[in-house]
Design a protein that fits this description.
heterodimer; A: alpha/beta; OB fold (Dihydrolipoamide Acetyltransferase, E2P); five-stranded mixed β-barrel; 4 helices; 6 strands; B: alpha+beta; seven-stranded mixed beta sheet; 7 strands; 49% helix; disordered N terminus
Chain lengths: 156, 446
């Protein structure tokens, strides 16, 4: 019995970092499930309006609309503007529907973009990105820090 | 058998207090002074998405947070401004008259940097005695201030007082000609709530918009806003999809059905109004709220967003028209050669700052210049952006861009040549210069 408890504790210690650090940045739950079922991911690129994402019904803790969930893990093409104040040389930035988001910044009003093979430089004006979309609340210290994410290779 | 199962289930619910009794409210969480201070730091200097969440949490804490914020807010507008917009926006939630005493001078000071947040804070629970003071802000240069004021007056007139209701209805009808489409839509929705459902025709027009300001899809944004507003009123949209162009067949069918539904709603609601209140909403939409034709050949653009002086969307076209606003913009014919001369100044501005596209630091004040790239007249327009936060930045704009700003402002005709009836063109040159001065510094007198 003590051996079993020890084994469980050891397993917990080994697994904890993976659990704690898993913020679902790369692959959405639906694609993960599809890959586990042995299904090949689709290469089809879906064009999505950032305005549609912004206006999708969202309430904290509630499921996102079905059409948003269906995009989870898919390759999408998305236009938007780099948030003003995007610093240079980073691997992440916020894509917003209007370059000056001067109202309250709501979590469903931006897409958190991760650059896999590039770093940021400020691009004024509209840009279009292709990448893998994922959605769902990412919570840090009790605050929701992102709802929509896009992983892409590089800036246009 | 099923009957017994149902009876058993009902009996179990009745007899089991933990299931059938209403859930007891969890005791309010206690926050230590250190936790409150940490939330204040998040609300002031967290990321843009965290700041409002932290402020909301502080508002839910109540008195301990209010007491701490009062000590920080101090007694001067300068100290209040240091709280930042997210905290200022929730001060009105605390129901503490000392906060209102701080907020009102900020609302009345045109130079206070966070007036939209102040106005929303005051509008959260306006006091009956504040009506006259609020009403003056329906003409404020900043659209979010007008919007919050409209909401505040709607709340104050939501009781039984017929005179106040009538006063509000007239004020809201006047806002149906506001130069900002967000304010017009809000006025329409509030009027629908008062039985003047004809105002929803304004939203029906928004559903058909396809306008853009260069690459900014202002029409598509209006379609989403109208859809959200109509859905909030529980109006069946007949399958209308904002992400599809309104000219698609499904959307055309949906619009036809929706048009009938909204007309029926307008007739039904008006029939319930007293005779004297009927016909308040005009049957014909003002030009500013109608569908606009396309804007062809826009070669230069100036977008000014000032937290103190309001927003301006200007375009200069190949055939020397000045296009003011978006949606159904105002169009002013300029002297021949105006756009060509401005483009030469724009070329000089790019050549003086090669490769540079952004000046300043993030904030809600912004100047955006659009122009053809030098030597690439057919390529996508170049965009140069200045932005600043609440701190003054008098030397932010480089000289060559100031020269372009000055030339653009000088090309705006005097009031004698513009329609005094259109709120977008009234006193436009002076207002644009004022906005320039409040963002990147003065561009000089005319």
């Amino acid at each position: 019995m003590p051996f079993l408890v020890l084994l469980l504790l050891l397993g917990g210690v080994i697994a904890a970092p993976g659990v704690l650090l898993d913020r679902s940045w790369k692959v959405g739950d639906k694609v993960q499930a599809a890959m586990e079922r042995g299904e090949a991911p689709s290469n089809e690129i879906i064009e999505v309006s950032i305005l549609r994402l912004k206006n999708a019904r969202y309430r904290r803790g509630r499921p996102l609309p079905e059409w948003v969930q269906e995009l989870d893990g898919k390759r999408i093409s998305l236009w938007g503007y780099m948030a003003i104040g995007t610093l240079e040389g980073l691997s992440e930035f916020e894509l917003v529907p209007e370059s000056c988001e001067c109202g309250k910044s709501k979590v469903n009003h931006f897409v958190q973009v991760t650059l896999d093979d590039d770093v940021t430089r400020f691009i004024p004006g509209r840009i279009t990105l292709e990448g893998t979309f994922s959605c769902g609340e990412v919570e840090e210290d009790g605050f929701i820090t992102s709802l929509y994410r896009l992983s892409t290779d590089q800036l246009p | 058998m099923n009957r017994f199962v149902r009876l058993a289930a009902v009996a179990a619910l009745v007899l089991c207090p933990s299931v059938s009794a209403p859930a007891q409210e969890a005791p309010a969480r206690q926050y230590s002074p250190e936790q409150i201070d940490r939330l204040i730091v998040h609300a002031q200097s967290g990321s843009a998405v965290i700041r409002p969440q932290a402020a909301e949490r502080l508002a839910s804490i109540g008195k301990p947070a209010a007491d701490r914020l009062l000590t920080m807010a101090g007694t001067s507008l300068g100290e209040l401004a240091l709280l930042g917009p997210s905290l200022i926006e929730v001060l009105g939630r605390f129901d503490d008259p000392r906060f209102r005493a701080l907020l009102w001078p900020a609302m009345e000071d045109a130079e206070f940097p966070w007036r939209p947040a102040v106005s929303r804070s005051l509008a959260h629970r306006p006091l009956p005695g504040e009506w006259d003071r609020l009403q003056g802000f329906l003409g404020d240069p900043i659209a979010p201030v007008r919007l919050a004021t409209l909401d505040a007056l709607a709340l104050l007139s939501s009781g039984d007082g017929a005179e106040r209701r009538a006063r509000f209805d007239s004020l809201a009808v006047a806002r149906l000609t506001d130069d900002n489409d967000v304010v017009r839509r809000r006025a329409a929705v509030l009027l629908d709530g008062r039985g003047h459902s004809r105002a929803l025709q304004w939203l029906l027009v928004d559903l058909q918009r396809t306008d853009t300001y260069f690459d900014l899809p202002t029409g598509e944004a209006a379609r989403y806003a109208a859809v959200n507003a109509l859905q909030a009123l529980d109006i069946d949209l007949a399958g209308f999809e904002a992400f599809l162009p309104p000219t698609t067949e499904p959307n055309q069918l949906a619009l036809a059905k929706l048009r009938q539904r909204l007309l029926a709603r307008a007739s039904a609601s008006e029939s319930r109004l007293p005779e004297a209140a009927r016909g308040l909403v005009p049957r014909t939409l003002p030009a500013i709220a109608q569908l606009g034709g396309p804007v062809e050949g826009a070669r230069l653009g100036l977008l000014l967003k000032s937290c103190r002086r309001g927003d301006y969307y200007l375009r200069w076209t190949d055939d020397d028209q000045l296009i003011i606003g978006y949606g159904n913009p105002a169009r002013v014919q300029l002297p021949e050669g105006t756009t060509r001369r401005l483009m030469a100044v724009a070329d000089a501005a790019q050549e003086a700052n090669p490769g540079k596209v952004y000046w300043g630091r993030p904030g809600c004040d912004m100047e955006s210049f659009r122009m053809p790239r030098v030597g690439q007249p057919d390529a996508r327009l170049q965009q140069l952006i200045l932005s600043k936060d609440e701190r003054p930045a008098p030397d932010l704009r480089p000289a060559a861009l100031s020269a372009l700003g000055a030339a653009m402002a000088a090309s705006i005709p005097t009031d004698d040549a513009l329609s005094a009836r259109d709120p977008r063109t009234r006193d436009l040159a002076r207002r644009v210069r004022g906005a320039f001065a409040s963002i990147g510094g003065s561009v000089g007198p005319r």
